[in-house]
């Protein structure tokens, strides 16, 4: 199983899929459906060539034939499906449908769950042989003649040309700006290409090789097909901007010289991108490994009760399934059936594959699960917050180095992510939106994004108005008014204003705590019996040494919105603190100050998942959670108290907590605040100078360590590898080693037993081989001495 997702790595593909897809699809026919009294009879009829492989038949199912696989008595199916279902064991249900690549992967997953690795390997082998054999029998071949001409394509192209001419005319007459003309032309050709693509799908013969190859998932995609028999459409120039002249031809018709030439830009860029991407993805993996290498499963349970809430609404936005997301995680609150209220999963239980299947189709709105983001262990994480080890779909073992697994799971698909920065709608002049691998890097390094979104620093009511520039004459008269398309976004919010007065012992206070005062009311008489009055109305808060007047006032926070910016809020909306107001990416440091740690961690997870899923790469949440947890694993020391920490130092959370826990009650604790750092910064602020020095900026790290007289406790993996010690993970972890000591003792005992038996056998053979002439006395001596030699 793939540790990044928990899905099988080995699943049938290409010919194997196509062969099985072909035999499980029923051929359309008007012939009467033949009926058989049993599966055996149907197989006999097939052997005698009375029915074909893909002919629709009805079969009566006897108990001993398909066993638990089928619920119905009469099955409407075809012979191909019966033969395909014979390939795998009885616990897996009967698939009475067309089997494509996705369904096959599902079968492999079920097989692994029910029967384990060895049996699954046999099933895979049978599927492979069956697929190859059936595809060979099908005799599919692929030629240019299998690509029909698309009727209606030329009409669509002519329609596009006419629309573009109209836009050009409007531009010539001055009704459109150059930017508007460009974006309109791009929009027209994008629409035309989509309508041509829609025509291509309907035109293919469903029984033909092209349709079945793509539909089964064996090879190719609808996008590639639309380029072969629709039109290639718009292409980009070397700088990544869309060329407004589309490629109207398809690969079957062949391109004109100009079309061929403008297509080369994109192709070359694709190849050079791939070469660059490999290096970038490798470097990202290295940084991720460095930041997460010392995260190991240390305990069984940290006792966390906060966890994390996953809602159906969030999952839908990312195109994910709530049930899939919670498989292999412990739940904090019981999951109940939405209609009956019966508990499906109790609090503190893990969601197994079986329980997840029983929840499918139920409208469960939200689930609270244990999460790595709230695991209480200062160093490492616990089994319950982590859940299943995805490589085995079992509870993770103590000592598993989950940090490195997470880093490699995120880094490995990196080469498949695109490098490009997209132009919004291909319009020149708008700033780029970073996506793909550079965006992943931007998030994990907590960099300020190129196109920064505005964040509401306060919660309140939104009002949007046009920003006007007024030019006045010498006498103050208005000469001209102009607007640059800028808007003013105001958030109106309630806030408190305070006025504070210091009190002395001899002041005569005339007001009570909690009392409301009006403007110019007397508050107290000072030492000279002079009246001190209020300057505002409000509520009195009376302390021993001070008096406050607290007043609720309405305030406004203004934001200037540049022209062309896409707003995410409307006039009259109510927004919360930390709401994104405009399109773009959030500046994570600013978001952390406004909305707090948990919101930032959720945003990181959502963004990373969006990038990977939009590129068709699956990734389990727990890996991203682990890296997000590490980004918040440092504390900035504000006040060192009586600890050995230094003020202004950035230390690991574990070191900070240990320092504070070692103080006596009378001693002053250190005060620190959580800091949010990018992964490279986190790696360089680690307690281990060996680990940091082997990562980056070696000289700086070593000089620092020498000046501060640092010592390395050798708690992570890297530092131990560097000096050649056993790494503290797996059986190298003391607690794990203790647990397996009895097992090791048992193995040693068995080994000693075998050795003793072997020694006895040696003795027997010795007796057989001795010549008859020899006297028995030396023999006895020899037998006595032999065990001595053995013990040596």
Please state roughly what percent of the residues sit in beta strands, choosing from under 5%, 5-15%, 15-25%, 25-35%, 35-45% or over 45%: 15-25%
CATH-defined fold name of the largest domain: Enzyme I, Chain A, domain 2
Q: What's the architecture of the largest domain, going by CATH?
A: Orthogonal Bundle
Class by alpha and beta content: alpha+beta
Please, how many domains?
7
Instruction: Give the fraction of residues assigned to helices.
Output: 40-55%
CA-based shape: globular
Using DSSP, what is the number of strands? 27
Taking all Cα atoms into account, the compactness measure Rg is 37 Å
| Main beta sheet | 6 strands, antiparallel
CATH superfamily of the largest domain: RNA polymerase Rpb1, domain 3
The average pLDDT is: 83
| Order of adjacent strands in the largest pleated sheet | 19-22-23-17-14-24
Question: Which stretches of 5+ consecutive residues score pLDDT under 50?
Answer: 421-431, 774-792
CATH class of the largest domain: Mainly Alpha
Instruction: Give the helix tally.
Output: 26
Straight-line distance between termini = 47 Å
Descriptive account of the structure:
By secondary structure, this protein is α+β, with helices and mostly antiparallel strands. The chain has seven domains: 15-138, RNA polymerase Rpb1, domain 3 (Enzyme I, Chain A, domain 2); 151-264, Topoisomerase I, Chain A, domain 4 (Orthogonal Bundle); 281-296 and 401-450 and 594-631, PTS-regulatory domain, PRD, CATH 1.10.1790; 297-399, no CATH class; 460-583, no CATH class; 633-675; 734-791. The chain is 42% helix and 15% strand. It has a six-stranded antiparallel sheet with strand order 19-22-23-17-14-24, with no helix packed on it. The protein has a three-stranded mixed sheet with strand order 1-2-3. Strands 18-20-21 form a three-stranded antiparallel sheet, with no helix packed on it. Strand 1, helix 2 (39-47) and strand 2 (56-60) form a beta-alpha-beta unit. Helix 15 packs across helix 19 (621-631) and helix 18 packs across helix 19 (621-631). The protein is globular and about 120 Å long.
């Amino acid at each position: 199983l793939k540790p990044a997702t928990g899905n099988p790595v080995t699943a049938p593909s290409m010919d194997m899929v196509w062969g099985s897809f072909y035999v499980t699809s029923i051929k359309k026919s008007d012939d009467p459906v033949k009926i058989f009294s049993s599966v055996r009879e149907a197989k006999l009829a097939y052997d005698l060539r009375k029915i074909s492989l893909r002919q629709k038949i009805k079969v009566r199912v006897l108990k001993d034939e398909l066993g638990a696989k089928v619920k119905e008595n009469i099955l409407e199916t075809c012979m191909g499906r019966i033969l395909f279902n014979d390939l795998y064991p009885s616990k897996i249900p009967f698939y009475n449908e067309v089997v494509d690549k996705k369904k096959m992967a599902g079968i492999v997953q079920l097989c692994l769950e029910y029967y384990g690795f060895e049996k699954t390997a046999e099933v895979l082998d049978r599927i492979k042989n069956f697929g190859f054999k059936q595809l060979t029998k099908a005799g599919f071949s692929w030629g240019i003649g299998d690509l029909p001409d698309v009727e209606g394509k030329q009409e669509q192209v002519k329609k596009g040309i006419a629309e573009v001419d109209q836009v050009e005319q409007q531009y010539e007459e001055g009704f459109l700006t150059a930017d508007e003309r460009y974006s309109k032309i791009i929009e027209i050709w994008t629409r035309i290409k989509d309508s041509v693509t829609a025509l291509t799908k309907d035109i293919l013969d469903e029984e033909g090789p092209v349709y079945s190859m793509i539909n089964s998932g064996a090879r190719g995609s609808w996008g590639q097909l639309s380029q072969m028999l629709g039109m290639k459409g718009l292409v980009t120039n070397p700088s990544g901007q869309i060329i407004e002249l589309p490629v109207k031809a398809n690969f079957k018709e062949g391109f004109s010289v100009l079309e061929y030439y403008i297509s080369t830009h994109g192709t070359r860029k694709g190849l050079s991108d791939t070469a660059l991407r490999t290096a970038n993805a490798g470097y990202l993996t290295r940084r991720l490994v460095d930041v997460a290498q010392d995260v190991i499963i240390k305990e069984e349970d940290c006792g966390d009760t906060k966890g994390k809430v996953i809602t159906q609404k969030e999952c839908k936005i990312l195109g994910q399934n709530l049930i899939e997301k919670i498989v292999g995680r412990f739940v904090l609150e019981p999951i109940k059936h939405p209609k009956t209220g019966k508990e499906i999963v109790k609090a503190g239980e893990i969601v197994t594959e079986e329980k997840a299947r029983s929840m499918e189709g139920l409208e469960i709105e939200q689930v609270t699960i244990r999460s790595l983001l709230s695991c209480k262990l200062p160093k490492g994480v616990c089994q319950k917050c982590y859940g299943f080890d995805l490589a085995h779909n079992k509870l993770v073992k103590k000592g598993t180095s989950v940090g490195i697994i997470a880093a490699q799971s995120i880094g490995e698909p990196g080469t498949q992510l695109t490098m490009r920065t997209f132009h919004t709608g291909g319009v020149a002049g708008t700033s780029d939106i970073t996506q793909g691998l550079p965006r992943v890097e931007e998030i994990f390094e907590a960099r300020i994004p190129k196109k920064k979104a505005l964040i509401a620093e306060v919660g309140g009511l939104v009002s949007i108005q046009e920003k006007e520039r007024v030019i006045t004459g010498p006498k103050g008269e208005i000469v001209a008014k102009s607007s640059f398309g800028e808007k003013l976004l105001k958030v109106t919010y309630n806030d408190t204003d305070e006025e504070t007065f210091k009190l002395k012992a001899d002041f005569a206070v005339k007001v009570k705590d909690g009392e409301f005062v009006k403007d110019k009311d007397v508050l107290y008489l000072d030492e000279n019996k002079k009246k001190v009055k209020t300057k505002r109305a409000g509520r009195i808060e009376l302390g021993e040494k001070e008096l406050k007047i607290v007043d609720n006032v309405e305030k406004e926070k203004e934001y200037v919105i540049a022209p062309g910016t896409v707003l995410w809020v409307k006039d009259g909306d109510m927004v919360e603190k930390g709401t994104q107001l405009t399109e773009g990416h959030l500046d994570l440091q600013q978001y952390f100050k406004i909305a707090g740690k948990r919101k930032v961690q959720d945003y990181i997870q959502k963004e990373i998942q969006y990038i990977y899923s939009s590129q068709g790469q699956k990734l389990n949440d727990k890996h991203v959670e682990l890296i997000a947890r590490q980004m918040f694993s440092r504390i900035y020391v504000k006040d060192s108290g009586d600890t050995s920490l230094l003020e202004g130092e950035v230390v690991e959370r574990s070191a900070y907590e240990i320092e504070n826990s070692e103080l006596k009650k009378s001693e002053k604790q250190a005060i620190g605040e959580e800091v949010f750092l990018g992964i490279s910064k986190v790696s360089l602020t680690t307690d281990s100078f060996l680990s940091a020095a082997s990562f980056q900026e070696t000289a700086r790290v070593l000089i620092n360590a020498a000046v501060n007289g640092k010592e390395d406790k050798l708690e992570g993996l890297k530092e131990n590898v560097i000096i050649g010690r056993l790494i503290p993970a797996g059986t190298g972890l003391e607690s794990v080693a203790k647990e397996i000591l009895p097992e090791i003792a048992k193995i040693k005992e068995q080994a000693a037993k075998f050795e003793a038996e072997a020694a006895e056998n040696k003795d027997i053979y010795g007796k057989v081989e001795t010549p008859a002439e020899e006297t028995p006395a030396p023999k006895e001596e020899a037998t006595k001495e032999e065990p001595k030699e053995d013990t040596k």
